[in-house]
Amino acid sequence: MKRYADGTWRNPNKPMTVSDRVRRARWVETETLHLKRMGLSFDTIAQHITRVGRGETQALSETPEGLSFPPSFSISRQACHRAFQTAIAREPSLEVAEMRKIDTARCEEIYMNLQPALRKGQPAAVLAGIRVLGHKARINGYSAPQKLEVTGRDGAPVPVSIGLSDDTVDAIYQHLTAGVLGNSQTEQETISPGPSKSGSKKR
Questions:
Q1: Which residues, 6 or more positions from 35, have their beta carbon under 8 angstroms from its beta carbon?
Q2: 197 bridge partner residues
C-alpha cells in the first residue's frame, strides 16, 4: 500500500486526496519563503503565521481555498526554518539564484541610502559602504581571492613538532644507517668469490 504525503496509508482503490495537514504545510512553506525574501527574521515570521492561523491578520501569500487551522494554532521559529529549507530544496538552483538577486538588490539599496553620509565623508558611512560592497562581491562570486599567510609570533616561522626529541631522532637515524651499511657489507661478502681451488693437490 502507498502512503499519503503526510505519511498515512491510503486505499489504492480510492483516488488520492491531499489532507488539510499537507495543504497547511505547503502554505506555511510558501508564506515563510515570501516573508524571508522581505528580510524578516524567523521569530517575526512565526509570530505572523501564528496570527494568520488564528484569524488575527491577513496572509501575504495566496491562501488555498478552504484551508483551515486547528484551534489555538501556533508555530515555532524552528518549524518556520524547516519550512524555509524545504521550500528552497524543491527548486534549489532557481531559489538560490533568486535569493542572490534579492540580496544584491538589498545591498544596492543600502548603499544608495548611505550616499548622503558618504558625500559628507563620515567615517562610519565609509566603513559601512565598504562592507556592503564586499558582501555584494562575495555573494556574486567576483571578489578577489584572498591570500592567507600563517606565521608565528612576531612574524617568525611556525614551529612544527613531530613529538620526538632530537636525541630520539639521532638514535633512529643511526639505527637506520647502521642497518643499511650492514646489509651492504653482507651483499658484498655474498657476491665476492671464495678462495681459488686451482692450487689444490690431486690424489
A1: 44, 45, 48, 60
A2: none
